[in-house]
Amino acid sequence: MEASLGIHMDEPMSFSPLRDRLQADGSLKKYEQTIKLPGVKKDIEKLYEAVPQLGNLFKIKDKIGEGTFSSVYLATAQLKVGPEEKIALKHLIPTSHPIRIAAELQCLTVAGGQDNVMGVKYCFRKNDHVVIAMPYLEHESFLDILNSLSFQEVREYMFNLFKALKRIHQFGIVHRDVKPSNFLYNRHLKKYALVDFGLAQGTHDTKIELLKFVQSETQQASCSQNKSHLVMGNKISTSGPTPKELDQQCTTKTSVKRPYTNAQIQIKQGKDGKEGSVGLSVQRSVFGERNFNIHSSISHESPAVKINFNITYSYLFIVRRQQVAPRAGTPGFRAPEVLTKCPNQTTAIDMWSAGVIFLSLLSGRYPFYKASDDLTALAQIMIIRGSRETIQAAKTFGKSILCSKEVPAQDLRKLCERLRGIDPNTPKLNTQGPASQDPAFSEKTDCKASNFVQTSQVQHSGNSLYKGDSNSCEDHFDEFTTNLEGWDEVPDEAYDLLDKLLDLNPASRITAEEALLHPFFKDMSL
Ligand code: ADP
Ligand code: MG
Q: Which residues are listed for ATP binding in this entry (predicted)?
């Protein structure tokens, strides 16, 4: 294998069918032993068939991730000299838009490879199949380790996340999907990597050329403007999609595509208050994301904030003409300005998401917010940060929210300690795990009284009361030993930083650069 970076496009067909090849070198049995699921085995074979040049370079061992827009495989590459190298192969769904794919690749090549941002080694394309080859980072499942992390590990985790965010924000990349499954963490090696630029967008002055196209206002504009002049950074160059390919992509209406224009991700409010088919067709699957990583385990995830929608009435209105604004990502991690469709979104939205991760780490609850739509997510934010405060902040970015019931802001320390199971009088952890009936969200704070109505261009107020997460999972108790280290004396700086990350106003929210200099990280160096 070449040691240098390179893009391999439409390589000559020097591939013999996988089975024959493996039989020939006697490794078929060994190969089959490494494949656990017949479905995975089939997928691997299909991938070899779709992108034959992979067979010359890699042994694909397993599927380690599957989302709506990609499948990720673990492979090994045998270099002429030296040990076998582990590689992650991200196979993007063939219906992904070429510009979207190229932009994801450009983020990795230009900003990646340092400061905890995943880099790229190769990229392969055969027809409409694209595979990005990256260094493999074995990582933990966030949920599995959440309650076994020492306080110092949490500090290091957040510090390294900010390092990655500072790096991408310097390039004018807004990641838009910051969450634990996109920030790989190898606890043993203390290695971290921000991955998945599949939803990234550029700031107005982005240094990632292709993100300028991704940001364009309408799908039509994108289709007509982006001929084939794609500029790739960092020594990697590739031919862009042909106008024909672009046309095909732009006119295909039935397939699931990653959003690449603002127009595509406009919310359509359906009669039942959920997003209509247009919105859904471009939405990333929020709860369907599977992680096949060896360290991961399937468990019942319990959101820290649960809302029962069937009790009393409290109305929340966002009084504004429906605006076109990007709102991709995962509801529980979306900033208030994303949830209210503020059109001017900045890198601050990633800082909010980092705040939600920090909230999980401090409270021992993941996911912290579990919302299947934006209004539920906004209501959950209000329960933690206060309704008045949310309304006031929304005004600063031009959004009017009406809420019939006032919900006070919570004290973040008290909230996290209660959820973590720390009795404030006796500073000792409850090793049974977080309390299932948490008083922070009982009648007292009226979190049950949350039925929401959005008024916008599409008026369905009579029918759009959200029916809620009635099938939300049972409480999850971590099987791992709860780590007491450092948790009995969490410094005020931790909650001060959390408060600054969860600043409802994006204009004053702390930046990644500022966060790294926060007193919470006083003895840590970049
Ligand atoms: P998607 O767009 O489908 O979410 P991601 O890029 O987030 O794709 O990858 C999905 C999952 O695959 C990740 O959550 C992670 O578990 C795994 N993964 C992705 N890249 C790597 C990598 N370089 N090393 C190890 N695992 C990876
Ligand atoms: Mg992902």
A: 90
Residue 459 burial (10 A CB sphere; 0-12, 13-18, 19+): exposed
Q: Is 350 a catalytic residue?
A: no
User: Tell me, what DSSP letter sits at residue 65?
Assistant: E
CA atoms of 251 and 427, how far apart (whole Å): 61
What is the pLDDT confidence band of residue 459, given thresholds at 50, 70 and 90? very low
Give DSSP secondary structure letters for 463-490: T------TTPPPPP---SPPP-TTGGG-
pLDDT for res 317: 54
Burial of 288 (0-12, 13-18, 19+ CB in 10 A): exposed
| H or E element at residue 59 | strand 58-66
CA of 130 to the centre of ligand 1 (A): 15
Specify the ligand 1 atom closest to the Cα of 296. Answer: 16
pLDDT band at 481 (very low <50, low <70, confident <90, very high): low
Element (H, E) at 304: none
- Our answer on whether the CB atom of 70 is closer than 6 Å to any ligand 1 atom is yes
Task: Compute CA 228 distance to the chain's CA centroid, rounded to the nearest angstrom.
Answer: 29
Work out the burial of residue 187: count CB atoms within 10 Å of its CB; fewer than 13 is exposed, 13-18 middle, 19 or more buried.
middle
Give me the residues near ligand 2 (ion), CB cutoff below 5 Å: 182, 196
For ligand 1, atom 17, the nearest C-alpha belongs to 65
Report d(CA 333, CA 387) in Å as an integer. 18
User: Per residue in 107-121, pLDDT tens?
Assistant: 999 999 999 999 999
Which residue owns the Cα nearest ligand 1 atom 14?
Answer: 181
Residue 174 gets which letter from DSSP? Answer: E
Q: Which residue has the tokens 């991961």?
A: 296
**Rounded distance, CA 465 to CA 451, Å?**
6
* DSSP output for 122-158: EEEEETTEEEEEEE------HHHHGGG--HHHHHHHH
* Burial class for 105, CB neighbours closer than 10 Å (0-12, 13-18, 19+): buried
Task: Give the residue from 350, 362, 346, 332 showing the smallest Cα distance to 497.
Answer: 362
pLDDT tens by residue, 229-254: 222 333 333 333 333 333 333 333 33
Q: What is the pTM of this model?
A: 0.74
Q: Show the beta-strand stretches assigned E in 183-271.
A: 183-186, 191-194, 201-202
Asked if residue 286 lies in contact with residue 327, where contact means CB atoms within 8 angstroms, the answer is no
Is the pLDDT higher at 108 or at 272?
A: 108
The pLDDT score that the predictor gives to residue 304 is 73
Quote the CA–CA distance of 472 and 286 in Å, as a whole number: 13
Query: Does the structure show a pLDDT above 70 at 60?
Result: yes
43, 62, 115, 177: the catalytic one is 177
Could you give the domains of the chain?
46-135 (3.30.200.20), 151-218+327-423+489-521 (1.10.510.10)
The C-alpha atoms of residue 207 and residue 451 are separated, in whole angstroms, by 43
